[in-house]
Structures are given as C-alpha cells and as structure tokens.
Amino acid sequence: MVVRQTALHLADEIWGCYPFQAVLDYAKNYIIAIQEQSVLEIGCGVGRCIGSIAKHFPKSNCWGIDYSYQMLKQAARVWVDKTDINIDLSSKGFPSSLLIKGYSLRNLQFGLAKANHLPFEDNSQDLVYSSFLLDRLENPQSALIEINRILKTPGKLLVISPLNFRHATHWASCYPPVKLKGLVHKAGFHILDWEEDIIIHEPLDFHGNTVQWKCIRFVAQKTG
Q: What pTM does this model have?
C-alpha cells in the first residue's frame, strides 16, 4: 500500500501529471490569501498535499496527520528528511524503477493520530484539510466535532471525498449528501461552498486503466 500510494502521489512523471492536482489546487486556493497561518491535513498519507502546501507557503506552519505509521514514515523521509526513494513499479507494467527526490521542509511536521482525537489545542488551527478520508472514518460526525474544536474562529474546513461509506449506519446518516450537510451544520460550521459530482480519475497501471471517483467537495467555516 505504501508503494502504491507513493507511486500515485509522488511519481508524476509516470502518469504525465499529478492525478490529484485538482484536489491540491482546491486547498491552495484557500491558503494563498493568508500565507502566515497554521494548516493541518488529516489523512495525509505519504504527504503530497501538505508537503506541496508547505513548500509553496514557507511562512505557514504545516501539519500532516495520519493513522498509518508506515505512511507517515514514508512522508517524513520524502518531505522532511530529504531522503531520495526508489520505487519499483514493474508489477504495474512500468519498465523500471523510479527515483523520487526528497526535500527538507522545516515548516512541516507529521504525527500519528485519529481524526476524532487530534493532538492539538482548542482554537489552534487556521485551516483543516482532508481528501479521500471522510467516508473511511469510524465516526464522521465525531471527527467533524473534533475538527471544529481545534479550529480558530472563523477557521475553515476543506473536504474532498467520495461517499463510499463502509458501514450501513454511515450511509443512513450521511447519504444523500443533504444529510451530510446537516451533520456539518450540527458540528458548528457554516457552509461557504458545496459541490457534488466532482469526478477524480485515479490511474491504476501503465495501460491507462483508471478508477473514477464521484466526489463532493465543500468549504465550511467555524461559526463559534
């Protein structure tokens, strides 16, 4: 899984682009106006989004949180420890290994934590960002409440996610998306932007096979 995520999020040259660039650009749009702020990504994986944000906005204090130690270890190697990594993608049809260059970003830190128990003080973050995580959580509502706790007022939450819930209770409480809107409001947020049926194509192999994800994306502001 770590190799797969590393290839997907860090090996742009094999895909001809970054497949999730639209996801990253959505986050950047809300950071560019105020660059000296604290930015947290929950479910950061191998760190592509929060690493790119930290690189482009060096005055921001950036955090990447995930619940996979191996993902975080890889993220720290690439973005903080300046370790060059070779990955072998021959199983996906690619002809050779690929070298991924490392960075040494001093405004970025990684930590192991769950979305519903974040290691941050109340009112400490300016922006919280999450992609492809909401439908994977054990308790989406609990996570929304916890994110509200750590956000400053009027901090923002940015979410991009398919609604592919693992549990029947989550489908019942969060789908159709109007129900999810209600949970976001109930957690103490005002929705500033909401879009449905955003299509993200995830490449699978050298032959051009992809998975098509139909996603929602929204921006919500803490109301107090």
A: 0.94
